[in-house]
Amino acid sequence: MTTRDLRGPRRPPSRRGFLFALLLKPYIAAGILWVGCVWWGGNVSYAEQLSLHEWGQIVGPDPLACRSHDDWKKMTALMADDAAAAMEFARNYCKRFEEMTIVRVENIYSDALCVRPMGGYDCFWILPQWVHGLDDN
After folding, report:
1. Which three-class secondary structure state does DSSP give residue 56?
2. With contact defined as beta carbons under 8 Å apart, do 96 and 62 qualify?
3. Rounded to whole angstroms, how far apart are CA atoms 92 and 71?
4. What is the spatial distance between Cα 105 and Cα 127, in angstroms, rounded to a whole number?
5. Where are the domains of the chain?
6. Against a cut of 0.70, is the pTM above it?
7. Tell me, what's the pLDDT at 14?
8. 61 close to 33: Cβ distance less than 8 angstroms
9. What's the rounded Cα separation, in Å, for the pair 1 and 4?
10. Alpha-carbon distance 118 to 125, whole Å?
11. CA angle 31-114-74, nearest 5°?
């Protein structure tokens, strides 16, 4: 007699594990985004922040930017309370930039910069830590 026979008939796979994995993915993505924000925030001095109308490039892990400052504030507030809701909001109202995108600073607030991609018309609000100056070399 094998151990399989002692355990009884085989049960079908649990749907609970599948649903748990499906619902956990947004939290994992939001956690990675939050860790990236904290890491980049600690490694960039505000003394290095770009000034108005300066050109820079976006550097960071999956940088998100929103069209309006109100959307930006709402997304960052949601990130603190409900990461899954923040990611859903970002998917609908914000844009994920490619790393190394060249941008121009069009507006500055204490919590975000409004940057316009080179050749673009729209301004997007983004974390100041994700925008670095261009080297003249």
Report:
1. strand
2. yes
3. 10
4. 12
5. 13-133
6. no
7. 60
8. yes
9. 8
10. 15
11. 45
- State how far the Cα of 68 lies from the Cα of 95, in Å rounded to an integer: 11
Q: Any alpha helices (H) in the chain, and if so which ranges?
A: 3-7, 15-43, 69-81, 83-93
CB atoms within 10 A of CB 117: 18
φ/ψ bin of 77: left (φ > 0), alpha (ψ from -120 to 50), beta (otherwise): alpha
Q: What is the pLDDT of residues 58-95, one digit of tens each?
A: 987 778 899 999 999 998 888 888 888 888 998 999 99
CA-based torsion, 92, 93, 96, 101: positive or negative: positive
Query: Would you state the torsion angle of the CA atoms of residues 103, 62, 93, 20, taken in this order, to the nearest 10 degrees?
Result: 180
Burial (CB count <10 Å: 0-12, 13-18, 19+), residue 43: exposed
What per-residue string of b and e applies to 86-107 under the rule 16 or more CB within 10 Å gives b?
bbebbeebbeebeeebebbbee
Asked if residue 68 lies in contact with residue 16, where contact means CB atoms within 8 angstroms, the answer is no
- The CA distance from 43 to 39, in Å, is 6
Average pLDDT (19-41) is 59
